[in-house]
């Protein structure tokens, strides 16, 4: 068997063999028909972020509300079309870019308000990321109790496995063996994702990535829900890994909404920017159910900013950016601009 084909997803002893970046044998029924365009809602407000980087909570709440209503076509409580009041809902945020850039508290708070308005109980809302110290570095107060909004992570430290599911693993030898951790060829999945949450809202950041080109919706999930994935950070492996993980049935069934937080963003030195000169303020949210379409648009925004600043195009210097196109080829969403419907909401007074 060729090395690239030895990739498997194991669920409670049942093994699914993965193809070369395409989950051909899983029996998946993908939601993205070639006959329909993928809808993305773009919401801009010129006063969402002040010059001192202070984000206006009320404006962000309004931006999110209008964006959800446009996306779902439902006026009033739009999340009710995606989420049941009895669901436990996970907000998968991104804190890696701490302390300068992470999913904004204001956007998270706005989403919590929307969830509570449709009847989701506070303790059934989990705000989470992979590492606990990343979250605390971003000012989140951890809470794993039976009261209030829950804030916790899969791992408390790099070498500590506190919330991993022993029944869900991804096995792959198509990696860089020198970067494997003690788990060898196995990635273990967060039980926050596999067991604790009924639905997931993917809340990515608009930023570039030194290895993947960009880290948007696809990468926020694929690298955020399992461990031992640094071994795939390379030009030969990263796109296949991202596509494999996002192709899994559990991923596609649970993620009901993707958001790119573009209130602030970075166009260079991501995913962990260290200087403010690489940041910019689009003051924009992008919402949709198609992660490929969202990532396609997000990449375009970053490329446009890089061109204005005199930086080379990511597609020229970081070939691993093809993970977006590979994901489209796997049926995970739409990549061609003519297949994406962008609804723009400009909230300029």
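^ Assign residues to that structure.
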């Amino acid at each position: 068997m060729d090395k690239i084909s030895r990739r498997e997803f194991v669920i409670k002893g049942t093994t699914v063999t993965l193809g070369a970046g395409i989950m051909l044998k899983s029996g998946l029924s993908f939601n993205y028909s070639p006959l329909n365009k993928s809808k993305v809602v773009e919401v801009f407000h010129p006063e969402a972020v002040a010059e001192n980087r202070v984000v206006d909570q009320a404006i962000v709440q309004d931006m999110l509300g209008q964006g959800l209503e446009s996306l779902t076509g439902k006026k009033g409580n739009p999340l009710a079309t995606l989420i049941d009041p009895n669901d436990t809902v996970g907000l998968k945020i991104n804190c890696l870019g701490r302390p300068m850039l992470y999913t904004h508290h204001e956007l998270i708070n706005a989403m919590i308000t929307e969830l509570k308005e449709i009847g989701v109980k506070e303790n059934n809302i989990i705000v989470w990321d992979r590492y606990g110290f990343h979250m605390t570095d971003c000012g989140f107060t951890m809470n794993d109790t039976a009261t209030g909004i829950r804030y916790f992570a899969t791992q408390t430290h790099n070498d500590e496995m506190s919330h991993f599911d022993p029944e869900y693993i991804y096995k792959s030898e198509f990696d860089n063996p020198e970067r494997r951790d003690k788990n060898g060829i196995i990635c273990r999945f967060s039980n926050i994702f596999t067991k604790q949450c009924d639905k997931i809202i993917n809340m990515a950041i608009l930023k570039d990535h030194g290895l993947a080109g960009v880290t948007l919706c696809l990468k926020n999930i694929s690298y955020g829900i399992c461990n031992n994935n640094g071994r795939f950070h390379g030009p030969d492996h990263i796109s296949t890994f991202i596509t494999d993980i996002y192709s899994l049935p559990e991923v596609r069934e649970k993620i009901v909404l993707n958001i790119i937080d573009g209130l602030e963003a970075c166009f260079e030195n991501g995913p962990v920017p260290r200087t403010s000169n690489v940041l910019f303020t689009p003051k924009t949210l992008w919402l949709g159910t198609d992660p490929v379409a969202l990532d396609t648009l997000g990449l375009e925004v970053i490329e446009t900013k890089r061109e204005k600043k005199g930086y080379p195009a990511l597609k020229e210097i970081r070939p691993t950016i093809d993970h977006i196109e590979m994901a489209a080829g796997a049926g995970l969403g739409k990549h061609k601009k003519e297949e994406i419907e962008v609804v723009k909401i400009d909230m300029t007074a």
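The two ends are 61 Å apart (CA to CA).
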